[in-house]
Design goal:
32% helix, eight-stranded mixed β-sheet, four-stranded antiparallel β-sheet, OB fold (Dihydrolipoamide Acetyltransferase, E2P), single chain, alpha/beta
Length: 373
Amino acid sequence: MSSITPVRMPKWGLAMQEGAIVDWLKHEGDTVTDSEDLVDIETSKINNVCESPTAGVLRRIVGQPGETLPVGALIGVLAPPEVSDEEIDAFIAEFNANFTPAADSDEAQAAMALSMVPVAEGRSLRMGRAGQGDGAPVVLIHGYGGDLNNWLFNLEALSAKAPVIAFDLPGHGGSSKNVGDGSLAMLAGSVGDALAAIGVERAHLVGHSLGAAVAARLVADRPGLAISLSLICPAYLPGTTLSETFVSGLVDAQRAKDIKPLLELLLADPSMVTKDMVEDMVKFKRTDGVEEALSAIRDRMLDGADARALAADLGKLPRTLVIASRADRIVGAPDEAALPGNVRVAWIENAGHMPHLEQANEVNALLGAQIDS
Protein backbone atom coordinates (compact mmCIF):
# COMPACT_ATOMS: atom_id res chain seq x y z
CA MET A 1 0.00 0.00 0.00
CA SER A 2 3.03 2.28 -0.19
CA SER A 3 1.66 3.92 -3.35
CA ILE A 4 -1.51 4.99 -1.55
CA THR A 5 -1.47 8.52 -0.11
CA PRO A 6 -3.97 9.60 2.55
CA VAL A 7 -5.63 13.02 2.37
CA ARG A 8 -6.13 14.05 5.99
CA MET A 9 -8.02 16.84 7.74
CA PRO A 10 -5.39 19.60 7.82
CA LYS A 11 -4.14 21.33 10.95
CA TRP A 12 -4.34 25.08 10.42
CA GLY A 13 -2.98 26.62 13.58
CA LEU A 14 -1.69 24.99 16.70
CA ALA A 15 -5.07 25.13 18.45
CA MET A 16 -7.25 23.74 15.60
CA GLN A 17 -8.95 20.51 16.64
CA GLU A 18 -11.50 19.85 13.88
CA GLY A 19 -12.78 21.04 10.54
CA ALA A 20 -15.93 20.69 8.44
CA ILE A 21 -15.99 19.50 4.83
CA VAL A 22 -17.72 22.20 2.79
CA ASP A 23 -17.31 20.86 -0.75
CA TRP A 24 -14.92 18.77 -2.82
CA LEU A 25 -13.41 20.61 -5.78
CA LYS A 26 -12.48 17.32 -7.46
CA HIS A 27 -14.43 14.13 -8.12
CA GLU A 28 -13.46 10.53 -7.57
CA GLY A 29 -11.33 9.45 -10.52
CA ASP A 30 -9.93 12.94 -11.22
CA THR A 31 -6.19 13.33 -11.70
CA VAL A 32 -4.70 16.01 -9.44
CA THR A 33 -1.31 17.67 -9.26
CA ASP A 34 0.81 18.27 -6.20
CA SER A 35 -0.62 21.18 -4.13
CA GLU A 36 -3.69 21.53 -6.37
CA ASP A 37 -6.84 22.79 -4.62
CA LEU A 38 -8.74 19.73 -3.49
CA VAL A 39 -11.45 20.43 -0.90
CA ASP A 40 -12.96 23.43 0.91
CA ILE A 41 -12.62 23.21 4.69
CA GLU A 42 -14.39 25.36 7.28
CA THR A 43 -13.00 25.96 10.77
CA SER A 44 -14.21 28.16 13.60
CA LYS A 45 -11.59 30.78 12.68
CA ILE A 46 -11.39 30.78 8.87
CA ASN A 47 -12.47 28.94 5.74
CA ASN A 48 -9.76 27.74 3.37
CA VAL A 49 -8.85 25.21 0.71
CA CYS A 50 -6.99 22.00 1.53
CA GLU A 51 -4.41 21.26 -1.16
CA SER A 52 -3.46 17.84 -2.50
CA PRO A 53 -0.45 16.41 -0.60
CA THR A 54 0.94 14.92 -3.83
CA ALA A 55 0.13 14.20 -7.48
CA GLY A 56 -2.12 11.27 -8.22
CA VAL A 57 -5.68 10.14 -8.81
CA LEU A 58 -8.40 10.90 -6.26
CA ARG A 59 -9.57 7.34 -5.83
CA ARG A 60 -11.87 7.78 -2.85
CA ILE A 61 -13.69 10.60 -1.09
CA VAL A 62 -14.06 9.57 2.54
CA GLY A 63 -15.12 12.80 4.26
CA GLN A 64 -18.46 13.94 2.88
CA PRO A 65 -19.74 17.54 2.60
CA GLY A 66 -21.28 18.59 5.89
CA GLU A 67 -19.17 16.23 8.00
CA THR A 68 -17.07 17.64 10.85
CA LEU A 69 -13.95 15.59 11.48
CA PRO A 70 -10.96 15.85 13.83
CA VAL A 71 -7.55 17.04 12.66
CA GLY A 72 -5.68 14.15 11.05
CA ALA A 73 -8.80 12.17 10.13
CA LEU A 74 -8.88 10.50 6.72
CA ILE A 75 -10.95 12.53 4.28
CA GLY A 76 -9.73 11.13 0.95
CA VAL A 77 -7.35 8.71 -0.75
CA LEU A 78 -4.91 9.26 -3.65
CA ALA A 79 -3.49 6.32 -5.56
CA PRO A 80 -2.43 5.33 -9.10
CA PRO A 81 -5.00 3.62 -11.33
CA GLU A 82 -3.28 0.24 -10.99
CA VAL A 83 -4.05 0.06 -7.28
CA SER A 84 -7.17 -2.10 -6.88
CA ASP A 85 -10.38 -1.05 -5.16
CA GLU A 86 -9.81 -3.88 -2.68
CA GLU A 87 -6.45 -2.35 -1.68
CA ILE A 88 -8.09 1.06 -1.26
CA ASP A 89 -10.80 -0.46 0.96
CA ALA A 90 -8.20 -2.25 3.06
CA PHE A 91 -6.15 0.95 3.44
CA ILE A 92 -9.19 2.93 4.62
CA ALA A 93 -10.22 0.23 7.08
CA GLU A 94 -6.70 -0.02 8.54
CA PHE A 95 -6.29 3.77 8.78
CA ASN A 96 -9.59 4.27 10.59
CA ALA A 97 -8.97 1.34 12.92
CA ASN A 98 -5.65 2.83 14.04
CA PHE A 99 -6.55 6.54 14.03
CA THR A 100 -6.89 8.30 17.38
CA PRO A 101 -7.66 12.03 17.50
CA ALA A 102 -5.22 14.17 19.47
CA ALA A 103 -6.27 14.61 23.08
CA ASP A 104 -7.16 18.06 24.36
CA SER A 105 -4.11 17.92 26.61
CA ASP A 106 -1.90 17.38 23.56
CA GLU A 107 -3.46 20.42 21.91
CA ALA A 108 -2.96 22.50 25.05
CA GLN A 109 0.71 21.56 25.13
CA ALA A 110 1.10 22.54 21.46
CA ALA A 111 -0.64 25.94 21.73
CA MET A 112 1.28 29.15 22.26
CA ALA A 113 2.30 29.96 25.81
CA LEU A 114 1.08 33.50 26.51
CA SER A 115 2.65 36.07 28.82
CA MET A 116 3.01 39.84 29.24
CA VAL A 117 6.31 41.67 28.69
CA PRO A 118 6.76 45.15 30.26
CA VAL A 119 8.24 47.80 27.94
CA ALA A 120 8.72 51.59 28.09
CA GLU A 121 6.21 54.16 29.38
CA GLY A 122 4.24 51.64 31.42
CA ARG A 123 3.18 49.57 28.41
CA SER A 124 3.12 45.78 28.28
CA LEU A 125 3.00 43.61 25.16
CA ARG A 126 1.24 40.27 25.02
CA MET A 127 3.65 37.64 23.77
CA GLY A 128 3.05 34.11 22.54
CA ARG A 129 5.74 31.45 22.33
CA ALA A 130 5.73 28.18 20.40
CA GLY A 131 8.34 25.64 19.39
CA GLN A 132 11.33 24.23 21.19
CA GLY A 133 15.04 24.93 21.44
CA ASP A 134 17.35 27.75 22.37
CA GLY A 135 18.21 28.96 18.86
CA ALA A 136 17.47 32.37 17.40
CA PRO A 137 13.69 32.79 17.28
CA VAL A 138 11.35 33.73 14.48
CA VAL A 139 9.56 36.92 15.59
CA LEU A 140 6.09 37.54 14.11
CA ILE A 141 4.50 41.01 14.00
CA HIS A 142 0.89 41.34 12.84
CA GLY A 143 -0.78 44.20 10.97
CA TYR A 144 -3.21 47.02 11.76
CA GLY A 145 -6.29 45.78 13.61
CA GLY A 146 -4.87 42.27 13.98
CA ASP A 147 -3.24 40.26 16.73
CA LEU A 148 -0.93 37.30 17.17
CA ASN A 149 -3.73 34.91 16.14
CA ASN A 150 -3.30 36.13 12.54
CA TRP A 151 -0.42 33.64 12.27
CA LEU A 152 -2.51 30.51 12.92
CA PHE A 153 -1.66 28.98 9.51
CA ASN A 154 2.07 29.64 9.90
CA LEU A 155 2.94 28.70 13.47
CA GLU A 156 3.21 24.97 12.97
CA ALA A 157 5.50 25.21 9.93
CA LEU A 158 7.71 27.91 11.43
CA SER A 159 7.93 26.39 14.92
CA ALA A 160 9.24 23.19 13.32
CA LYS A 161 12.29 25.22 12.22
CA ALA A 162 12.93 27.47 15.21
CA PRO A 163 11.33 28.84 18.36
CA VAL A 164 8.57 31.28 17.48
CA ILE A 165 7.66 34.50 19.29
CA ALA A 166 4.56 36.47 18.29
CA PHE A 167 3.66 39.87 19.73
CA ASP A 168 0.49 41.90 19.92
CA LEU A 169 1.43 45.45 18.96
CA PRO A 170 0.55 48.30 21.36
CA GLY A 171 -3.15 49.07 21.02
CA HIS A 172 -3.92 45.57 19.77
CA GLY A 173 -4.95 42.18 21.14
CA GLY A 174 -3.96 41.73 24.77
CA SER A 175 -1.32 44.48 24.80
CA SER A 176 -1.63 47.85 26.53
CA LYS A 177 -3.88 50.29 24.70
CA ASN A 178 -1.63 53.29 25.37
CA VAL A 179 0.04 54.03 22.01
CA GLY A 180 1.36 57.52 22.71
CA ASP A 181 1.75 59.37 19.42
CA GLY A 182 0.92 56.21 17.45
CA SER A 183 4.13 56.50 15.45
CA LEU A 184 6.00 53.75 13.68
CA ALA A 185 9.02 54.53 15.87
CA MET A 186 6.93 53.94 19.00
CA LEU A 187 5.58 50.62 17.74
CA ALA A 188 9.02 49.42 16.64
CA GLY A 189 10.64 50.61 19.85
CA SER A 190 8.10 48.69 21.93
CA VAL A 191 8.82 45.45 20.07
CA GLY A 192 12.56 46.06 20.35
CA ASP A 193 12.29 46.73 24.08
CA ALA A 194 10.25 43.55 24.54
CA LEU A 195 12.90 41.48 22.72
CA ALA A 196 15.63 43.03 24.85
CA ALA A 197 13.62 42.30 28.01
CA ILE A 198 13.46 38.59 27.21
CA GLY A 199 17.11 38.42 26.17
CA VAL A 200 16.73 38.13 22.37
CA GLU A 201 19.72 39.72 20.63
CA ARG A 202 19.33 38.15 17.16
CA ALA A 203 16.18 36.98 15.41
CA HIS A 204 14.45 36.22 12.13
CA LEU A 205 11.84 38.98 11.81
CA VAL A 206 8.58 38.47 9.91
CA GLY A 207 6.01 41.25 9.67
CA HIS A 208 2.68 41.69 7.92
CA SER A 209 1.29 45.01 6.60
CA LEU A 210 1.81 47.64 9.33
CA GLY A 211 3.75 44.96 11.21
CA ALA A 212 6.09 44.65 8.24
CA ALA A 213 6.79 48.39 8.41
CA VAL A 214 7.35 47.99 12.17
CA ALA A 215 9.84 45.18 11.53
CA ALA A 216 11.69 47.22 8.89
CA ARG A 217 11.81 50.30 11.15
CA LEU A 218 13.10 48.17 14.03
CA VAL A 219 15.84 46.61 11.93
CA ALA A 220 16.91 49.98 10.49
CA ASP A 221 17.08 51.46 13.99
CA ARG A 222 18.82 48.49 15.62
CA PRO A 223 21.47 47.16 13.21
CA GLY A 224 22.53 43.60 13.90
CA LEU A 225 19.19 42.47 15.31
CA ALA A 226 17.91 40.74 12.16
CA ILE A 227 19.39 37.50 10.92
CA SER A 228 16.74 37.62 8.20
CA LEU A 229 13.88 39.98 7.39
CA SER A 230 10.64 38.97 5.66
CA LEU A 231 7.88 41.48 4.91
CA ILE A 232 4.41 40.25 3.89
CA CYS A 233 2.25 42.77 1.99
CA PRO A 234 4.17 45.59 3.68
CA ALA A 235 2.85 49.08 4.19
CA TYR A 236 5.07 52.10 3.46
CA LEU A 237 7.08 50.64 0.57
CA PRO A 238 7.47 52.62 -2.68
CA GLY A 239 4.43 52.13 -4.88
CA THR A 240 2.07 51.13 -2.10
CA THR A 241 -1.06 53.16 -1.28
CA LEU A 242 -2.84 52.77 2.03
CA SER A 243 -6.62 52.21 1.89
CA GLU A 244 -8.24 54.95 3.96
CA THR A 245 -11.53 53.11 3.51
CA PHE A 246 -10.11 50.19 5.49
CA VAL A 247 -8.13 51.95 8.23
CA SER A 248 -10.76 54.64 8.92
CA GLY A 249 -13.57 52.14 8.57
CA LEU A 250 -11.98 49.95 11.20
CA VAL A 251 -11.84 52.91 13.59
CA ASP A 252 -15.48 53.89 13.02
CA ALA A 253 -17.21 50.49 12.64
CA GLN A 254 -19.06 49.24 15.72
CA ARG A 255 -21.43 46.52 14.52
CA ALA A 256 -20.89 43.21 12.79
CA LYS A 257 -22.68 44.36 9.63
CA ASP A 258 -20.19 47.23 9.29
CA ILE A 259 -17.11 45.21 10.21
CA LYS A 260 -17.70 42.22 7.92
CA PRO A 261 -17.26 44.08 4.59
CA LEU A 262 -14.03 45.60 5.93
CA LEU A 263 -12.63 42.16 6.77
CA GLU A 264 -13.69 40.94 3.33
CA LEU A 265 -11.40 43.59 1.80
CA LEU A 266 -8.44 41.72 3.30
CA LEU A 267 -8.99 38.56 1.26
CA ALA A 268 -9.22 37.67 -2.41
CA ASP A 269 -12.04 35.26 -1.53
CA PRO A 270 -14.50 37.04 0.82
CA SER A 271 -16.12 33.70 1.73
CA MET A 272 -13.04 32.95 3.85
CA VAL A 273 -14.34 35.44 6.43
CA THR A 274 -16.20 33.51 9.12
CA LYS A 275 -18.73 34.55 11.74
CA ASP A 276 -16.09 33.99 14.43
CA MET A 277 -13.67 36.38 12.70
CA VAL A 278 -16.32 39.10 12.67
CA GLU A 279 -17.38 38.48 16.27
CA ASP A 280 -13.75 38.55 17.44
CA MET A 281 -13.30 41.96 15.82
CA VAL A 282 -16.54 43.25 17.38
CA LYS A 283 -15.30 42.18 20.84
CA PHE A 284 -11.92 43.81 20.20
CA LYS A 285 -13.53 47.09 19.14
CA ARG A 286 -15.55 47.16 22.38
CA THR A 287 -12.42 46.96 24.54
CA ASP A 288 -11.64 50.12 26.47
CA GLY A 289 -9.03 52.26 24.72
CA VAL A 290 -9.07 50.41 21.40
CA GLU A 291 -10.85 53.06 19.35
CA GLU A 292 -8.49 55.78 20.60
CA ALA A 293 -5.44 53.59 19.94
CA LEU A 294 -6.49 52.64 16.41
CA SER A 295 -7.36 56.26 15.68
CA ALA A 296 -3.92 57.50 16.78
CA ILE A 297 -2.12 54.88 14.72
CA ARG A 298 -4.43 55.53 11.73
CA ASP A 299 -3.67 59.24 11.84
CA ARG A 300 0.08 58.59 11.74
CA MET A 301 -0.31 56.10 8.88
CA LEU A 302 -2.29 58.57 6.78
CA ASP A 303 0.03 61.48 7.61
CA GLY A 304 2.81 59.92 5.53
CA ALA A 305 5.82 61.18 7.51
CA ASP A 306 6.63 57.74 8.91
CA ALA A 307 6.41 56.23 5.44
CA ARG A 308 8.80 58.80 4.00
CA ALA A 309 11.29 58.27 6.81
CA LEU A 310 11.23 54.51 6.35
CA ALA A 311 11.62 54.79 2.57
CA ALA A 312 14.80 56.81 3.12
CA ASP A 313 16.20 54.02 5.31
CA LEU A 314 15.41 50.98 3.15
CA GLY A 315 19.05 50.77 2.10
CA LYS A 316 19.97 50.06 5.74
CA LEU A 317 18.03 46.79 5.74
CA PRO A 318 19.77 43.42 5.41
CA ARG A 319 18.86 41.14 2.52
CA THR A 320 15.07 41.32 2.65
CA LEU A 321 12.28 39.17 1.25
CA VAL A 322 9.04 40.93 0.35
CA ILE A 323 6.03 38.67 -0.20
CA ALA A 324 3.39 40.62 -2.12
CA SER A 325 0.11 40.27 -3.98
CA ARG A 326 -0.99 42.28 -6.99
CA ALA A 327 -4.61 41.89 -5.80
CA ASP A 328 -3.91 43.54 -2.43
CA ARG A 329 -6.75 46.00 -1.73
CA ILE A 330 -5.28 47.39 1.51
CA VAL A 331 -1.77 48.58 0.59
CA GLY A 332 -1.59 47.70 -3.09
CA ALA A 333 1.49 46.27 -4.80
CA PRO A 334 5.00 47.63 -4.22
CA ASP A 335 6.94 49.13 -7.12
CA GLU A 336 9.60 46.48 -7.58
CA ALA A 337 11.75 48.75 -9.77
CA ALA A 338 11.87 51.42 -7.03
CA LEU A 339 13.18 49.08 -4.34
CA PRO A 340 16.88 48.90 -3.45
CA GLY A 341 18.95 45.92 -4.51
CA ASN A 342 18.85 44.36 -1.04
CA VAL A 343 15.08 43.75 -1.39
CA ARG A 344 13.70 40.78 -3.35
CA VAL A 345 9.99 40.46 -4.18
CA ALA A 346 8.11 37.15 -4.39
CA TRP A 347 4.62 37.48 -5.88
CA ILE A 348 1.74 35.36 -4.59
CA GLU A 349 -1.16 34.65 -6.93
CA ASN A 350 -4.78 34.08 -5.89
CA ALA A 351 -4.40 36.09 -2.71
CA GLY A 352 -5.26 39.51 -1.37
CA HIS A 353 -3.74 41.31 1.60
CA MET A 354 -3.26 38.17 3.72
CA PRO A 355 -1.40 35.58 1.62
CA HIS A 356 -0.03 33.94 4.79
CA LEU A 357 -3.64 32.84 5.41
CA GLU A 358 -4.87 32.50 1.83
CA GLN A 359 -1.86 30.67 0.35
CA ALA A 360 -0.21 29.49 3.56
CA ASN A 361 1.78 26.59 2.11
CA GLU A 362 3.46 28.81 -0.49
CA VAL A 363 4.20 31.56 2.02
CA ASN A 364 5.50 29.09 4.62
CA ALA A 365 7.87 27.63 2.02
CA LEU A 366 9.19 31.10 1.18
CA LEU A 367 9.64 32.00 4.85
CA GLY A 368 11.34 28.68 5.56
CA ALA A 369 13.80 29.19 2.72
CA GLN A 370 14.53 32.74 3.94
CA ILE A 371 15.20 31.47 7.47
CA ASP A 372 17.37 28.61 6.23
CA SER A 373 19.45 30.92 4.04
